[in-house]
Design a protein that fits this description.
Blueprint: H1 2-20, H2 45-56, H3 76-80, H4 88-101, E1 112-113, H5 128-138, H6 150-161, H7 178-191, E2 202-205, H8 207-219, E3 228-234, H9 238-246, E4 250-255, H10 266-276, E5 281-288, H11 300-313, E6 316-320, H12 337-343, H13 346-349, E7 354-359, E8 373-378, H14 382-394, H15 400-410, H16 420-446, E9 451-452, E10 465-466, H17 470-478, H18 483-495, E11 497-498
Helix pairs in contact: 4-18, 5-6, 5-15, 7-15, 8-9, 17-18
Length: 515
């Protein structure tokens, strides 16, 4: 019976096709050949082609067709989003670059883009071992090549065994490839000197940004005075303010202490929290350590105070730790929020909800383009965790090449392996150069009249204060822009150096900076 129905269906389809064939380029113009079957109009095609032609001329039945998506109908939360790192300054830099390429002349020969932490774009060389493993995963035929070390080959084989069809072109499970999640958990345990890490609490992400956005989506709820408040440091990385705007949450600013090397003051947290409670419900505190754009490294005591504050006020903690390998000041050390939480005792470690983030984009690898990252989720309600997995499933999985790159970062060559010497040399060279440039940047900026720069303890940025004369401030206001935006535009136009104004990151009133 099923076979008869299938045959009948095929006959109907074939009959329908016969009515519309042959369709040629000339038949689509509405001109019939004598050898052709029925006119295209009989299939309803000419009606749509004619309408399309009229619409392309701008009119249909004498009326202009209106756009469905306009600035009036656009999601208002999208209009509220701002992202200074790729904002107007960068667009202007692109215009100048094109002008120079076309033979135009400026007082400089190239644009130096210091607006974004894109290490490879600024000339940093890739870590050989990481690229070898990813290359082998991408093109397994290279396994037969003697040019690739066995240390890289066995890692690539292990990763591919965890991939569907042993191919990096397959989807992985939404939380990520299982063996990579296990490697990340082992790395965290080693980094935190034995603090346990459960691989099932590890979720691979498309860069740290993807994880941050996902967790914020879980947290934002309520209306009016019960709307979620998100506490963020000022200055902050504009991802946070952009995400808060897009989700229509409430941004709760707490200001870092510029006079104390951008340290986090616990009294400022209390002030910001109490003020915010008047108009929203603060539910989450975000920390960036080491800091972006401020370059500070939080002390263990400071982290303890933040975690105690979160415990007392029942706040969810988001710890952005993508610069954990980028610590340059000899008297500073990276402390993970998770390790400090563990050392505060079971009462804290078993109750404070914490998500920490890491990425392939920073550190010593600078592999921004792979878009690799992970988050570790601690003390999340099991039912909410199921919702997190559901949300991650919607985007299927992070790029597998990025997952493979992340695996190399957490599972690098060991001292007994043949590749360790070259790997260690390359890693030390990158971090040593960054530390040298951090010191050099601080020294040179502080030698310029009208600029004051705090020590760059870590991350990849300096955030100097610029003292702009009153007349320049008035000129900027007359032009309808922030004074530090005017400064950065002039800097770009006169020197070719592209930096981001501090107003894009947030700053105290009547102070001006750039990153």
């Amino acid at each position: 019976m099923y076979r008869l129905q299938s045959l009948a269906a095929r006959s109907l389809i074939a009959g329908a096709l016969d009515l519309c064939t042959p369709l040629t380029l000339t038949s689509l113009t509405g001109v019939r050949h004598k050898s052709q079957g029925p006119s295209v109009e009989k299939c309803g095609q000419m009606r749509f082609i004619t309408a399309e032609a009229k619409a392309s001329a701008g009119r249909l039945d004498g009326k202009m067709r209106e756009k469905t998506l306009t600035m009036d109908t656009l999601n208002p939360q999208v209009k509220a989003v701002e992202y200074a790192v790729r904002g107007p300054i960068v667009l202007k830099a692109g215009e100048i670059e094109r002008y120079l390429e076309e033979g135009g002349t400026k007082p400089f020969s190239e644009v130096i883009k210091a607006n974004i932490g894109d290490a490879h774009a600024m000339g940093q060389q890739p870590i050989t071992f990481l690229r070898q493993v990813v290359a082998l995963c991408t093109f397994p035929e290279l396994m037969d090549s003697p040019s690739f070390p066995e240390d890289a080959k066995w890692r690539a084989r292990r990763i591919l065994q965890g991939c569907g069809g042993h191919s990096l072109g397959s989807y992985s499970a939404s939380p990520g490839v299982e063996c990579i999640r296990k490697d990340i958990a082992a790395y965290i345990e080693q980094r935190d000197e034995g603090v346990p890490s459960d691989w099932e609490n590890i979720y691979l992400t498309t860069g740290a940004s993807d994880g941050i956005m996902t967790i914020l989506r879980l947290l934002v709820s309520g209306k009016d005075s019960s709307r979620t408040g998100v506490m963020i440091p000022i200055p902050q990385y504009p991802l946070y303010s952009a995400a808060i705007s897009e989700m229509d949450a409430v941004q709760v600013n707490y200001y870092l202490d510029e006079d104390n090397c951008w340290a986090l003051d616990i009294n400022e947290l209390h002030r910001a929290y109490q003020a915010a409670k008047q108009h929203c419900q603060p539910r989450v505190i975000c920390i960036i350590n080491p800091g972006n754009p401020t370059g500070q490294v939080q002390s263990k005591k400071c982290i303890e105070e933040v975690l105690h504050f979160a415990y007392e006020e029942n706040l969810f903690v988001m710890s952005d730790e993508v610069y954990q390998d980028n610590v340059y000041a000899p008297d500073c050390q990276f402390h993970s929020f998770k390790k400090v939480l563990y050392e505060m005792g079971p009462e804290y470690f078993s109750s404070v909800e914490l998500v920490s983030f890491h990425s392939t984009s920073k550190g010593y690898t600078g592999e921004c383009g792979f878009r690799g990252g992970y988050m570790e989720v601690i003390n999340m309600d099991p039912e909410v965790k199921a919702q997190l997995v559901k949300l991650l499933s919607v985007r299927l999985c992070p790029p597998l090449a990025g997952q493979a790159a992340m695996d190399v970062i957490v599972n690098p060559p060991q001292p007994e392996e043949h590749t360790f010497k070259q790997f260690h040399q390359e890693k030390s060279s990158v971090l040593g150069a960054l530390a040298e440039k951090a010191k050099l940047t601080e020294q040179i900026l502080n030698s310029v009249p009208g600029i004051k720069c705090n020590p760059v303890q870590g991350s990849m940025y300096a955030f100097p204060r610029i003292f702009i004369p009153p007349k320049a401030v008035e000129e900027a206001k007359a032009l309808g822009m922030q004074p530090d935006m005017l400064y950065c535009l002039r800097l770009l136009e006169e020197t070719g150096i592209c930096v981001v104004p501090g107003s894009g990151f947030g700053q105290k009133d009547r102070t001006y900076h750039f990153r």
